[in-house]
Amino acid sequence: MSPRNLLKVGVLCATLLISFLAFAQNKVITGKVNDAKDGSGLSGITVAAKGTTIATQTGNDGTFSISVPNDVKVLVFSSIGFLTQEVSLEGKTSLSIALVVNNTSLGEVVVVAYGTRRKGDLTGAVTSVTAKDFQKGSINSSEQLLVGKVAGLQVTSGGGSAGGGSTIRIRGGASLNASNDPLIVIDGVPVEGNGIPGSANLLNTINPNDIESISVLKDASATALYGSRASNGVLIITTKKGAAGKVKFTYNTQLSLGAITDKVDVLNGDQIRKIINDYSAETGSTVYKNLLGTANTDWQDEIYRKAFGFDNSISASGAVKNVPFRASLGYLTQDGILKTDHFNRLSATLNVSPKFLDNHLSVNLSLKASQTKNTFADGGAVGAAASFDPTQDIRSNNKYGGYFEWLDAAGKPIGTNGGSSQPNPISLLEFRDNRSTVNRIIGNIQVDYKLHFFPDLHVLLNLGLDKTKGSGNDKIDSLLVTNANTGGRYSYYQQKKTNMLFDAQLFYTKDIKSINSKVDVLVGHSYQDFYTNVFNYGSVNQKGDTISTSIPTLRTDKPQNRLESYLGRVNFTYNNKYLLTASVRRDASSRFSPDNRIGYYPAVALAWKIKDEFFAASNLVSELKLRLGWGQTGNQDGIDNYAYLPRYSPSYDNAQYQFGNAYYHFYRPAPYDVNIKWETTTTSNIGLDFAFLNGRISGSVDGYFKKTKNLLAVVDVAPGSNFNISLLTNVGNLENKGLEFVLNTVPVKNQVLSWDFGFNVTYNETKVTNLTKRDDPNFPGFDVGRIAGGTGNYIGKIAVGYAPYVFYVKKQVYDSEGKPIDGLYEDIDRNGVADDKYLYKKPAPDVLLGINSQVIYKKWNFGVAFHGSFGNYLYNNYHAGNAVLNAIKDPGLFIRNAPASYLETGFNNQQYFSDYYIENASFLRWDNINIGYNLGTITKQNIRARLTASIQNVAVFTKYKGLDPENSSVNGIDNNIYPRPRIYSLGINLDF
Amino acid sequence: MINKLINRFLLLAVVAFLVQSCAKKLDLFPQNDLTPDKAYANASGYKSVLAKIYGSLASGGNGGNGSDPGGNPDISGGLDEGSQIAFIRPFFNCQELPTDEAMCGWNDQTIKDYHSLKWTPADPFLKGMYARPIWNITLINEYLRESTDEKLAGRGITGTDADDIKKSRAEVRFLRAFNYWIMLDLFGKSTFITEDNLVGTDLPTEISRTNLFTYIETELKAIENEMPAVKTAVYGRVDQGALWALLARLYLNAQVYTGTAKWNEAVTYAKKVIDGGYQLIQTPVGAYSGYAQVFMADNDKHRNEIIFTVECDGLTLKSYGNTTFFVNAASGADKADFFQGGASGWTGYVATKGLADRFTDLTGNTDKRAMFTTSLYGTSNLTIPSLEQDILFGGGLHIRKYVNKRSDGLDVRDVSQRTFADIDFPVFRLSEMYLIYAEAVLRGGTTGNAATALTYVNLVRTRAYGGSASGNITAGELTLQFILDERARELYWEGHRRTDLIRYGQLTTNAYIWPWKGGVSSGTAVDSKYNLFPIPASVLSSNPNLTQNAGYN
Lengths: 992, 553
Prior knowledge:
The complex is a heterodimer. Chain A is mainly beta. Chain A has ten helices and 58 strands. In chain A, the strands form 13 sheets. Chain A has a 22-stranded antiparallel β-barrel. The longest helix of chain A has 16 residues, at 3-18. Residues 1-25 of chain A have low confidence and may be disordered. Chain B is mainly alpha-helical. Chain B is built from 21 helices and six strands. The N and C termini of chain B lie far apart (86 Å). The mean pLDDT of chain B is 91. The chains are: A mainly beta, B mainly alpha. Chains A and B meet through strand 25, strand 26, strand 28, strand 29 and strand 33 of A and helix 1, helix 2, helix 3, helix 4 and helix 7 of B.
């Protein structure tokens, strides 16, 4: 969003605020709301006149005063955590109300697919995390709010870069070659999952401070209404809305400081000197000895810094002239710990929800706009610092900016392709200026109309727009050795995405008292269009001359896909004990051929409130509900927009053939599968929700079984049968099964002290069950997981009977002291040749764990959170490639540093496929410690203040030898991630 | 009233939303990619497909956006674009690495199995080698289907455009035969598809070695008179010269391929090429001998000697799998001898002492073809200490045959980076035809004579010795083994050695042992099954119509 647009939003907000005017009322009701348990006054309770939008909130002592029209007969008292109470006025003007704590929060409303449902009435596996339970501390991107909070949900950040992205997995992956990312729905608009150039993470365009709740839809009965995009689960992000009542302001500010926790354990200058000198003494060769420097430089110290972050947001919410609204502005500036890395976000939201026509017509206008600015540090510096020769000084007298560089006798950088294969890590940061701007606006208008002549029926129109523009300038200075030969390289890029949504839905709700039943029905139509506009540009050098080889053949590209859907759902409740949900969606996708594009996704779920059946009067059992669900969902993300069409693509300029004196670009046919279609996942889920002792102990157990068929896999096809030997096609099956257990307890709860303790555990197992169209028990599977080192080397396999990306390695032989022997492997099949590989371990965890605890003591609160992952392994590619003598004395005639593990192995050569490098990367991470102090009212203007302090990334417990065991690489290859900083933050929260 | 109106309007709107069909809106087409009716809409579209048919021998893909050619491979399947799915480099690996002419020092997957003569059906390099010719043939078949008279007429293509396309049909049939010859030679049989096999529906069948030989022979003879006359094709395209050269090579190896020798035919077709007007380059330019110029960046000039080249171009036809590979893989810190520019060599490929022993003088002072001595690596350290040693670049014979510099001293095409080579890859050269003639005569071909054979061999030798007759041999010295050795000297690193050693029964047997043959330093014989490569396991499992070669099951 341009500053001008921001200004417009600001002016609009201001206008709404200024036009706040009182209006005439007829009677005044006063009173006090108390806690039913101890009689203390309750503040912040919403008091609303039923049938109107008039509402207020109780003050600090629990008292309230509200003016209502004379015809108002009932007041509604509600607040999160308490059972809602309706009180008849019947001529009273003063009331005393006692609210009962709703420990089980069964009455909480949870956002589900195309609607909301009371938590107690849920039939599917849905977990909703609300603002009060989000991860605390300095959180830049919304998905990070969920880390460790939900059973079956794994959120793994790619590293510690400012504004960086994460991998999100719900109940393991259901696919191999198509996407495994969940569908993300923001305020009713399913958004584009794929990124845009210039953005490390599209979810960072949403300010976490604006998020009210995130619903995690896990099983098919919960997700099937999203049809062909639902197999990987759904995250529904709901932003905060205005509530009726006086306009309230909230201001949050947070200052944070991030610092590196640990460095890659590498050798120092003296150690490298000894290794090279020993080598020289042994062989008589002085080639490398002559390259040695005299310094002891710690390159990692040189590239990292303390990172400051400053996050501010202000919001106003309430009602103006009976129109509820919420408006917010946010500004975040965040340094990365890698020098030059920076992320900056300006965000604004506006939500207006007026009602018209005797409240029959409600309109909800929601607008979220943001501008993020990234300065990307060259991530290559992380690896370069770990492997740059520590014997060299930082600076050197050369024409490459004065930083030491490896140069040949002619003074040219040593390296392939005219660049340097070992650039100085500091110059990588110093001489590259890579900035981007991403503007995003998500807006939708929902018009909900309750028919006057038939009030059981209401109509909802939802028109949504998600527009993103990413652009950037990547300036590589001519002083940087990697691009010295072209005289620097300045590249501009730009891409735009537009996603439009047209939804129309009919809702019908009816209490059929005669048969003690309640029914609600949804019928809908949805049309969504995803359009991308790609612009390609050539690069120029620092003098402004176009670099000839960079001129793109194709200036633009406009990939597009559309989805047209019908959907229907029936919720049926009998006797308030038996609940049935049945739904179906019909999707038609432009990605498939006309004969093939329609798919149906049915789901059905049953819930039985056992508590009400057998323990209705029990004090011990507060909730007991059994859920059974079954459904089919699809997955089409990751399929090319035009994969079913035969088509030829023109070649780039560097692929032409000369006939005579003329050059001709190539036309090349692409492989195609006219029958390609979505993957189908069938999920069964059984769950039990329970709560005991008035909710002091609560939780749930869920078991699931997911079977994906028509798996989109890139498989080998007979050479000569298509224009490739492998093709993305529907073949094969994959299974996921797992168990989730959630337990929340309140061991202590009294007036001064309350203590919450909860944890969630997930067990998940993923197995490939078939990969070939034709039954072939000898089929060895596909190679996956290309490693750094050599050409075309893979470390993993997709193989039948194993978890995806199982490692495929040689069995290391160790000497009597347990030291691995260089190049010696076990001859597994005993055929005399020790070249066998075997399938060993896998990158995905067996068990996920999340632990949360919170203590509230008087005005203090104190919390900790942990998350862990067990049974996950990593291939330590960095050690495999670098902890060897032949990497230290690089054949390109320069010296490199090695990880300290070289001293353990003493390997001469890279042993890329040794299982020695497959390491157990199980870990438990102490995510944060947070402390809060509620100052209460601090001024006469009723400003309430709260102070918070937190430490994030407190500690990691692991056996893994690399820098960080938590790695988002799907194939489990660790090449040194951007280190995750430890972040200390201080915050103030003001309400007025 | 207002309520009623709103009610009606909204209901109408909702019903319209719910009922309207968007079926048509779901037919979307790409902006840049062309559906076949658009790709073949005019003559220039045909030219672009023809360019791909030729170019598929030079590059593994459609090029990349920017300077790097990668990222856009024709063939995926987990294979590497440069080293596994291009044509020249994988073909070189198959023909040279199993022999005394080349060893690779890298730890790339199974690359070391080649020199050890112990490859398996699971070899990824072989998977790519099998895929490339068949991919080319699949495209050629498509071109033949799309270039019939009816299709051209239907698209309104007439006149000289139509004539040129019709002529190109013979050329692509030649290229199809050439691609099938590669299958015949390496795998001993092939997946068999012609223009009658449609893409996406048919499961291809297998053709036996004998039948494939006959098919290639029949095809070549069928199009002989439809091809442009010898030495008339424009640069980059083929004519009768290439067709005769392929037939000569096919007949020379007929006994291996079918069990029936065809020496007379080999002599006849070699002679046809020789009489076609080709000449060896004799004139040295500066420091570069006539021979050296055949492998330089401006070798496109030498169409008198080179009968068929695969074009490579540092600017417009970049690949890590074409002659760029020869220049880089063979060079290390001595890169300045190979090319100018900032890139360093890849320090990967050397020849064994076996090749060195074919030469009496490794300095290049007498036999100019001994292009070994470099500024950094001498010719004395010919022992390769260890097969497992990553950096064997300290030993072996360093080959400096392909040099990405121009003999005329001008700059190469890509003046800014000089990363990729301009050297065209010679597939057929006149020297090979001289040597085929001589060998076939010596082996009993009666369509030629021994005196001419000796003359031809000495033409090759005289040029090799810089125009001096000092290297010439006598009739008595012209033996079959001499010809094999002479082929090594003249044609090393041009993709002939494996085929030659098989024809002489020396690849797997102990008739000839070179260092590290069979994976041991002293060299050893191996199972005769290694005279053929196995059908890759993935190919077998994707096509049940195919069978494995003997010994590999």
